[in-house]
Amino acid sequence: GSSMHGISPQILQQLGIDTNNITNQVFVANLDYKVTDRKLREIFRMAGTVIDVEMKLDQEGKSRGMCIVRFEHPVEAVQAISMFNNQNLYDRRMSVKIDKMGGDNDKYTVQEIPNKLP
User: How far is residue 76's CA from residue 90's CA, in Å, rounded to a whole number?
Assistant: First the structure.
């Protein structure tokens, strides 16, 4: 199979990551509206090389509390999930997961993934 730079499939499963769907991007939701892309860059740099941070904005250009962070390598995206998923930033608990589209997709609807997957 494909090696994830020494990250074992068990760890990925614990994080709820589908190994067939790993991209180098994470989708971050439930962000505090004060959070800027610069702040996100600072934070996610701890997980790896951040190529791009794309804030999702509404019609008025205000933050919708979501963003996509693109890393250099998928392993860094995985690292970001293990480090930052469910961590508090200001007063909101961030949700960080693999952006399965791995590209632009504004039709993304944030749905709670049920914990009890078959």
Answer: 23
DSSP for the chain reads: ----TT--HHHHHHTT--GGG--SEEEEES--TT--HHHHHHHHTTTS-EEEEEEEE-TTS-EEEEEEEEESSHHHHHHHHHHHTT-EETTEE-EEEE-TT-S--TT----PPPS---
State the pTM of this model.
0.77
Tell me: the pLDDT tens digits for 80-111? 999 999 999 998 999 999 998 764 444 444 44
Tokens, residue 36: 């800027």
Q: Which of 73, 109, 80 is nearest to 94 (CA)?
A: 80
